[in-house]
Amino acid sequence: MASLGHNRCDVAIQRKAAVRLPSASATAQGAAFTLDALSFAGFAADGSHAMALLPILEFPDERLRTKAKPVAQVDDALRALIADMFETMYAAPGIGLAATQVNVHLRFMVIDVSEDKNQPLVFINPEIVARDGVQTCQEGCLSVPGIFADVERAERIRVSALDREGKPFSVDADGLLAVCIQHEMDHLDGKVFVDYLSPLKRQMVRSKLEKRRRQAAPAGAAAR
Ligand code: ZN
Q1: What is the maximum alpha-carbon separation in the chain?
Q2: Within 10 A of 128 (CB to CB), how many other CB atoms are there?
Q3: What is the mean pLDDT of residues 19-26?
Q4: Is the pLDDT confidence value at 68 over 60?
Q5: Neighbour tally for 203: CB within 10 Å
Q6: What residues contact 101, with CB distance under 8 A and at least 6 apart?
Q7: Cα–ligand 1 centroid distance for 58 (angstroms)
Q8: Burial of 95 (0-12, 13-18, 19+ CB in 10 A)
Q9: φ, ψ (nearest 5 deg) of residue 92
Q10: What is the DSSP string of the chain?
Q11: Cis ω on the peptide bond leading into residue 168 (within 30° of 0)?
Q12: How far is the CA of 192 from the centre of ligand 1 (A)?
């Protein structure tokens, strides 16, 4: 527990995602994503795909409340989206990103908790099949920029999922990886880590983000 006190979940280092991806363009590009089809902007007719940074939805956006549907087919379109999600996560920078956060409401997520950012993990249709113990970690979230709060989670979990080839696997996770998996799986169920805070604290987070967005709006528009 003590050793995890300074770990941060989605966000390892704080950066202004809002400046990189202004909310106006986030809305416009977000509309290109559809829930059932992965026929999103960025694919050429020949199926080739240029990597792209995806806009990240920010709390209290109602789309973060969507419960994601299971992935029916692990195909090239999904793998291209996974590649974009890794690029978006590393650029943010963050250590985990759920599809929900990029407005794709299917059950999968990408994670890399390694120091050198060279251990990418993909979880498709993840299920926690065993859990044990309790740990408290200071969490952050790319969808709630600049906000960090302690959240209690299971200390150890066993997760079953499909990998990016569609092959089933299971992994025993503890520490930061266990926290990160639980945090990202919450997103797939339409939950955000600030839901664990008291209503008063959550309202404070909301006000703080709204204030920051108002202040950042003119500067953000000029910066791009
Ligand atoms: Zn998050």
Answers
A1: 52
A2: 16
A3: 33
A4: yes
A5: 12
A6: 56, 57, 64, 142, 143, 187
A7: 10
A8: buried
A9: -55, -50
A10: -GGGTT--SSBSS---HHHHS-HHHHHHHHTT--SS----TTB-TTS-B---PPPPP-TT-GGGGPPPBPP----HHHHHHHHHHHHHHHHTTBSEEEGGGGT--BSEEEE---TTS---EEEEEEEEEEEEEEEEEEEEETTEEEEEEEEEEEEEEEEEEE-TTS-EEEEEEEHHHHHHHHHHHHHHTT--GGGGS-HHHHHHHHHHHHHHHHHHHHHHHHH-
A11: no
A12: 6
Q: What is the pLDDT of residues 104-161, one digit of tens each?
A: 999 999 999 999 999 999 999 999 999 999 999 999 999 999 999 999 999 999 999 9
pTM of the model: 0.78
Query: Phi and psi at residue 147, in whole multiples of 5°?
Result: -110, 130
Tokens at residue 40, please?
A: 């999103």
Dump pLDDT digits (tens) for 88-101. 999 999 999 999 99
- Across 178-198, average pLDDT: 97
Rounded to the nearest whole angstrom, what is the distance from the C-alpha of residue 217 to the centroid of ligand 1?
23
Q: Which residues are catalytic?
A: 184
What average pLDDT score do residues 205-220 get?
85
72 CA to centre of ligand 1 in angstroms: 24
